Q: What sequence folds into this?
């Protein structure tokens, strides 16, 4: 998975992952109306809206970017129907050749972690294997330590999948835990986690210098991103926080290695809600506006990377 | 929710939550066969097994215990069909008068956390409110700080719901992060988190001395449980790790306050797989064996609490 991601980034010259985090207000009225006409004012209608919205986005950007990242919460809020839309979105993106990074941030232990690992490992029933989620990688939370991570590593190994573990998140209050200084090592907690992540990924290396075990490092922490790039040279970074959350390409230079690799930048609202942010676009232009936003983001990142 | 939980514990004299974490091997052959005959060897069949299994457990223990705790991972591993079984289980337990603690351990930020908060707050569509999950409380992960918690606190306030935030988990590797000593305060990380949890819960107090914001504290850390009980006197504890994970009633004495309150102890396998652990029982005795295990656990805890 990690080599395929690196190859696709090289081919597209776009280290961009499109965050599929639709909220109700972003969904064009024509899609809302069609789904409500079919399903009434129900959770099924909401789920159908998400699927329809995502298909237009995926169709319009799938030749430009290597990956999409559906944010599980935006689907789960609508209950099991919403969760089905999440799985349908992942399956549709996979069929279009995109790498699917499931932003689920799961974290649990032992047999429970093994069950969650079905996200990337599938599940066996009477000798038959099922893969209901169609994700190539998922995000994970490290608070419970390696017991929560190991079952996923086994799946990375067995099925060539990937994980991205939260190291330094892009939200203001992440400092409440992540920046706490540790007594013995003098490290900040997130640096300690970075070292754990490096260790977890050490024997899951791909052919191109990066491990199947990556790290989530928020774009809003530019200096920390630069330092973490040096601290964990074999950990691929998934970087949220570009665009709507405040970071620009210039802030991200240090997140990439000397060859301009090692990092994929997420943008969600900046791409999927682009049709609402420019008077040139109407609600028919959901896909066209997303495409233009991807091209602008690619140009912004290329300028920084000198590509 | 927290007062109702305390009342129900007093009425039942059983500070016990039944963990609904069925794994395939625990499901009686008669249930497996019936579901496979109806649905074939499919994920829908697996989901139907979980629902049927849980209904028997719930029917057999709902007059003895105040609460159940379905473990989300055990359902999610079967994809959207499994997730539907999770929601059906929660709804069935709620109809039987049980408090439902959704063990989801979610953790995310801002608008994403607000979306996950639908677990306890429901979701609005065109002015109509839907409650697809039917949970009274959920477990949460604190790694991202208060940004990830605040939206849930709003739901606790608006809808009288609860949360249990991971403080000290019962697994061996929890020490990799949670026991790290902090430089400035000299606290272990989990103590620092305990203080955060106390703060988050300070203005969400119920009438009986406990907050709607509780803590997950593993039963396998007896001394730490005792110290945490003193450190966070208004935080109700959800305690995993009893029975199959190694802790006995005697280990748990310090988790309760001086009145024998402030704590609910989870047992999963010890109750729901009891039918497999005693030659007196056959697969028809799923419910009867669970009931007997609950009564034994109640007696064990009563001995410690002197009730």
A:
């Amino acid at each position: 998975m990690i080599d395929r991601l690196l190859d696709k980034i090289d081919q597209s010259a776009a280290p961009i992952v499109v965050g599929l985090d639709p909220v109700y207000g972003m969904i064009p009225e024509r899609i809302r109306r069609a789904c409500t006409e079919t399903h009434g004012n129900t959770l099924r209608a909401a789920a159908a809206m998400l699927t329809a919205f995502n298909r237009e986005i995926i169709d319009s950007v799938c030749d430009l970017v290597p990956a999409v990242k559906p944010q599980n919460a935006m689907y789960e809020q609508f209950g099991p129907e919403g969760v089905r839309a999440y799985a349908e979105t992942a399956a549709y993106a996979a069929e279009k050749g995109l790498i699917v990074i499931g932003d689920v941030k799961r974290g649990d232990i032992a047999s429970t972690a093994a069950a969650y690992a079905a996200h990337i490992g599938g599940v066996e029933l009477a000798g038959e294997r099922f893969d209901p989620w169609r994700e190539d990688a998922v995000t994970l939370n490290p608070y419970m330590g390696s017991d929560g991570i190991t079952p996923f590593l086994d799946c990375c190994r067995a099925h060539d999948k990937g994980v991205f573990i939260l190291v330094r998140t892009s939200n203001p209050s992440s400092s409440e835990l992540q920046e706490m200084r540790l007594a013995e090592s003098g490290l900040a907690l997130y640096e300690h986690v970075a070292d754990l992540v490096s260790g977890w990924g050490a024997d899951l290396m791909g052919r191109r210098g990066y491990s199947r075990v990556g790290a989530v490092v928020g774009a809003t922490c530019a200096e920390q991103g630069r330092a973490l790039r040096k601290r964990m040279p074999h950990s691929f970074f998934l970087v949220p926080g570009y665009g709507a959350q405040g970071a620009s390409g210039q802030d991200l230079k240090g997140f990439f290695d000397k060859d301009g690799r090692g990092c994929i930048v997420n943008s969600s609202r900046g791409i999927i809600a682009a049709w609402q942010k420019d008077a040139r676009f109407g609600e028919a232009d959901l896909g066209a506006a997303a495409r233009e936003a991807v091209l602008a983001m690619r140009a912004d990142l290329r300028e920084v990377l000198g590509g």
